[in-house]
Amino acid sequence: MNSSGHRLARRLTSERAVAIALIVPSAVAVAVFVYGFIAWSAVVSVSEWDTVRPDYTYVGLDNFRDLFNNFRFQIDIRNTVVFTVLFVGACLGIGFALASLLDRHVRGEGLFRSIYLFPMAVSFIVTGVVWRWLLAPRAGVNILPEKVGAGSIDYGWYTDPTVLYVHADTRLGEALHSVGLGFLANPNYGVPLAITSVVIAATWQMSGFVMVMYLAGLRAIPDELRDAARVDGASEAQILRHISVPLLRPVTLSAMIILGHQSLKIFDLVISMTRRGPGFATDVPGLFMYETTFQGNHFSHGAAVSILMLLAVSVLVIPYLFWSLRREARL
Amino acid sequence: MTLPWSRVAIYTVLVLFALVYLMPIYVLLVTGLKSFQEVRLEQMWDLPSALRFDSFREAYNSLDSNLANSFKMVVPATIASCMLGSINGYILTKWRFPGSDLIFFLLLFGMFIPYQSILIPLVKTLQQLHVYGSLWGLVITHVIYGIPITTLIFRNYYANIPTELVEAAKIDGASIFKIYTKIIFPLSLPGFVVVAIWQFTSIWNDFLFAVTVTSNPGIQPATVALNNMAGSFIVEWNVQMAGALIAALPTLIVYIVLGRFFVRGLMAGALRG
């Protein structure tokens, strides 16, 4: 190598040191505020800190054991599962339906898109306040039919304490019992109706986002592919089923992960819309953690809830991050 | 050829959905525009007989200082977030070093964590730094937890700027700062707009940090004040609704004016499925 090459190499090495120095503040901030704090929370979750005064005496997994024996937390797990399934399902269904309709050369597509998407720009608190009144038992949606001369609806929405579950004395309950699944015939494995109100509000807010993702995915499918199928006599429904849906699988996966991790973390919407609900019917771990920690001062139990929330999100997100970074590297 | 009736069906479905999505806005507007005499729950859907802004006025009077707090928090936090994100994105695309991909991965995960899992240490740390309960505490919090998403958006954005351009400048002897100011920054405007909108919207809309870091009502942002309003039995429903619209207005305006940049931020946040 000649001398100018050496100089360039030396200079670039020192520039690279500057580059690393520039990223250090962010890296350190995230290392401390994300990873350090997670470790700190983990330490709190296995400590005795149950009052205002910090107490880091190690108690092992006692706090976690308490949680899983706690009635409210058991209900929260049920609610999270029900909420996640309904919310993700509704968003994917509506988002995909709207996207595939908008993809068929619709006039005013931009306007429709903006209307479906605008709730994304609004905070969950606003959504919660508005839908609390829209789904109030003697107002909102319930009295809307009166405006067209029909009778009002008599439904309690988020005030309805009903939990749908398999009763032990029914045939299905007995069948479950005979295969050793009798424990499922219990409200803790049921569907609390009140939570559907929260699902409606959350879907109103997030389905437009799924629509945009699917629309981008549909636009990325080469027209020739679908045209060729049409020439071969395929119907629009067949094209959707055999071409669009399989090619949109990565979009579906991304949307499921994003919505799923959101529903595991949900807090704002519940606190502003329904809070715990009747018989904890709309309670969620996020709300439980907030109340336990910052209103009840049971720091170690609050930390334990948060660590469980983190684990649930990690199981979902970490494989996804690997998958999408690998995909990106391949492209 | 598609049959006309199928076109009719498509438009019918699209319009019906549009009406459902707009329904809350309709109720918010007619409620806010009515006089106090007209705002009974049974008349929620009726148009106002005369334009009065009673509910808006009352909601604004009780939220104005909180709206000011939100702006005081959002503006510096957004600016700082943009700068940090831009620098990080630049380094991670144009000055990659061994381990830079790992750093990126570790940053990204920070975007998805439930913030509950860092909340107790955050509160304790902010107390020790004497910024707990202040808007500066919130600004710091938002800037730090915004690093992952802002870095991601800028990284994806800068990945589209040809690396050859930067490599040529390196060989010509341009320094890391010069390449940034002469080549990268001038091309960055759309990236800055996307990140600024994203951060503005998510910081304005945040509730969890706001409610845990600010206990004093005097410095609470609008989302916390609105939630308190909604939780109180003294405040009438119409004032709550008007307050909700007022609290949503800044981000709604940004969305209406700069919608396409908002969508780009969303897609970047989705990591490009």
Topology order of chain B in helix (H) and strand (E) letters: HHHHHHHHHHH
Order of helices and strands of chain A: HHHHHHEHEHHHHHHH
- The tally of structural domains of chain A comes to 1
Indicate the CATH class of the largest domain in chain B. Mainly Alpha
- Determine Rg of chain B (CA atoms, Å): 23 Å
Number of strands of chain B: 0
**From the coordinates shown, what is the CATH architecture of the largest domain in chain B?**
Orthogonal Bundle
Total domain units of chain B:
2
DSSP, total strands of chain A: 2
Query: For the residues shown, what is the average pLDDT of chain B?
Result: 91
Strand residue content of chain A? under 5%
Sheet having the most strands of chain B:
none
In short:
By secondary structure, chain A is mainly alpha-helical.
Overview of the molecule:
Chain A is mostly helical. Chain A has a single domain (70-330), classed as MetI-like (MetI-like fold, Orthogonal Bundle), CATH 1.10.3720.10. Chain A contains 14 helices and two strands; from the N terminus they run H-H-H-H-H-H-E-H-E-H-H-H-H-H-H-H. Chain A has helices spanning 3-45, 62-69, 71-102, 109-117, 124-134, 140-143, 171-178, 195-220, 223-231, 236-247, 249-265, 268-273, 285-295, 299-330; strands at 163-164, 191-192. Chain A has a two-stranded antiparallel sheet with strand order 1-2. In chain A, helix 5 (124-134) packs across helix 8 (195-220) and helix 13 (285-295) packs across helix 14 (299-330). The radius of gyration of chain A is 26 Å and the shape is globular. The mean pLDDT of chain A is 93. With 273 residues, chain B is an all-alpha fold. Chain B folds into two domains: 1-52, no CATH class; 62-267, MetI-like (MetI-like fold). Helices cover 75% and strands 0% of the residues of chain B. Chain B has eleven helices and no strands. Chain B has helices at residues 4-33, 54-94, 100-112, 116-128, 135-158, 163-171, 176-184, 189-205, 208-213, 222-231, 237-269. In chain B, helix 2 crosses helix 8 and helix 10 (222-231) packs across helix 11 (237-269). The chains are: A mainly alpha (331), B mainly alpha (273). The interface between A and B is large, with 104 and 93 residues.
